Amino acid sequence: MKKNLLSPLLSIICILFCNCSRDDTSGNEQIIEMTNQGVIPCENGIAAGKYPCKGYDFVSHITLEQMNAETGNDSWGWTDPVTNKEYALIGLDNGTAFIDISIPESPRYIGKLPTATVSSSWRDVKVYNNTAFIVSEAKGHGLQVFDLTKLRNAGEATTFTADVHYTDFGSAHNIVINPLSGYAYVVGAKNLNGSQALYNGGPLFINIQNPLVPKNEGGYAEKAYSHDAQVITYNGPDPGYIGKEILIGSNENELAIVDITDKSNPIAISTISYAQVGYTHQGWFTEDMKYFLLGDELDETREGFNTRTIIFNMEDLDVPQEHMMFTGTTSAIDHNGYVKGNLFYLANYQAGMRVIDISDIANKNIAEIGFFDTFPTSNAADFKGAWNVYPFFKSGNIVISDINSGFILVRKKMIKI
Description:
The chain is mainly β. It has helices at about 1-20, 300-305; strands spanning about 30-35, 45, 50-55, 55-60, 70-80, 85-90, 95-100, 110-115, 125-130, 130-135, 145, 160, 165, 175-180, 185, 205, 215-220, 230-235, 245-250, 255-260, 265-270, 280-285, 290-295, 310-315, 320-325, 335-340, 345, 355-360, 365-370, 385-390, 400, 405-410, 415. β10 and β11 form a beta hairpin. The model is unreliable at about 1-35 (pLDDT under 50). InterPro entries: Choice_anch_B (IPR027589), LVIVD (IPR013211), Quino_amine_DH_bsu (IPR011044).
């Protein structure tokens, strides 16, 4: 009885003073809400009546049909620095969708930037300086550059046009951006007619410091095709590379570490591989840059593993070492993974999003602590389900882009008081 009397007062206090949530920069978010506000909690291992879950609640969903698309793929996020509204950018077979999630339980589909040429199952989008940069494996697609501030005053189901269509390359598998340097790195690129890989599929260097005037500054071809990469301004434990711009390329059968500070003279630092390589796919540094967590996309199907993450010690970039392997709880294929604080968020295809605690990674002690399975019918090793997860919003909202289901928004389970 006393709890019922206090609840309205607590709700008012929350609205006035705490905005119902906080972001813990350690990556271990604790979201406190006084009222449900439409979020469907994960209870007894299920959310919204169908999604297996642990520790993460269902917030909202926009289907592929609502976005007039056949399949989903990549995703990223943007927070408007003027309005503080959050937006999800969802890659689709026929374009890139923009979703206003400032009211997370009632997301608004603003519209779509159609593909530059033809539809493709592969699209990748990143954000720099309030601008989206989009590539695709569609033949002749090039780079679409889109001013995200247009979303502030847009209606619903708008068809947008790119501000710039950069065509110094055609198709590409991925784009990586280092926000500290203002450079974009396009990997797995071909020429406009698709007949030839550019720089052997290695990274192209594009200066985007003026986002609407991208400049070609060459590329790097000494190593093999790069499927994905992370590029950082190094501030880790190896004193010889402090302040350098370092690329870690996931190059099909190995990691390649390259100093790309001088775009006219990239310098190979080292390479490292590992046992039973399937396909070296994508990885991400821990925030202290001591460790690199790598996903292999084909080892589950070729070698019969459960989901496997290979972790490298990067304290000496000249001599990286394998640190440990982490095996997940299902046979599902791992795809893209990102580190925020002490948590590793993994898009795990048919197993959905998995969340792994890496706070004791130095002692080889990491563990899965939560998940939200967007593909409820199976955890098999197949290319369906969660393609990407974007965990970097300060609000704690987490975007999952699903090949079969479209856009799904989740957040860490609420603690009700």
